[in-house]
Design a protein that fits this description.
alpha/beta; seven-stranded parallel beta sheet; 2 domains; 42% helix; 248 residues; Alpha/beta knot; elongated
Length: 248
């Protein structure tokens, strides 16, 4: 596989058909062919077709999904682009900079890059569905970036650093599945519910663990080992507290 062919670009309710056309063109530049669009269908819009130029096949082949959940359901990781950063005490939006994103070609899995509306970006609830959120470093004087430009910048950065075309071979290790990461978080939640910490800190601890799991682009072996370890810790904690152990 060449380029960034395991990347899936997801546009959530794009407001300008022209931006969708330009996005298709940028994707073709970097060997990305899978485009998914949430809750609208601009594939036959004259402006989208005109601006896609020679990448019309990317535009015409775009998949239309009723929700973000549907659009990322078969991906191994989803990375949300946002211009809004939380403060130092925010645990719900732990941002990484574009240059700090993991290597999407390091594992043999499908990675979704999720972009929001031109006017308002992604909602907090949409970002929470993704494994991590990242931001593109820009001038503080004008931090908002055009949708198709943002897609192009992100794909250029990843292509330059990680593409096979840049001389970096792709690994063939199985990535952690989405359900496996959810299972690890479920076991961790059960541990937090048993240990003696203040109630208001419990959801914070659970969210921090989810942030860590989301930012860690783990292999199948790593997530299996993590699940097994956390499950044993959960069982030990429940024995100590006298609670019946649940089945895996």
């Amino acid at each position: 596989m060449s380029g960034l062919s395991n990347i899936v670009v997801v546009l959530v309710e794009p407001e300008s058909p022209g931006n969708v056309g330009f996005t298709a063109r940028a994707m073709a530049n970097f060997g990305v062919t899978t485009l998914r669009i949430v809750r609208c269908d601009p594939r036959t819009d004259d402006e989208a077709v005109m601006f896609s130029v020679h990448a019309r096949d990317v535009l015409e082949g775009a998949e239309i999904h009723p929700s973000l959940k549907s659009a990322i359901s078969d991906t191994h990781a989803a990375w949300a682009a946002t211009a809004r950063a939380g403060g130092n005490h925010s645990v719900t939006r732990a941002l990484v900079r574009l240059g700090e994103l993991p290597n999407p070609t390091a594992l043999d899995g499908r990675i979704a890059l999720v972009f929001g509306r031109e006017s308002s970006g992604l909602t907090n609830e949409e970002i929470s569905q993704c494994d991590l959120a990242f931001t593109i470093p820009v001038s503080e004087r004008y931090s908002s970036m055009n949708l198709s430009h943002a897609v192009a910048v992100v794909l250029y950065d990843l292509f330059l650093r990680y593409s096979e075309s840049a001389g970096i071979p792709r690994a063939r290790q199985r990535p952690a599945e989405r359900w496996e990461k959810q299972q690890a978080c479920k076991f961790f939640d059960e541990i937090i519910d048993e240990v003696p910490i203040k109630d208001f800190r419990r959801p914070i601890a659970k969210q921090v663990f989810r942030n860590l799991v989301g930012r860690a682009f783990m292999t199948g072996r790593e997530i299996t080992t993590l699940i097994g370890t956390i499950r044993k810790i959960r069982d030990y904690v429940k024995r100590c507290t006298g609670e019946p152990q649940s089945t895996p």
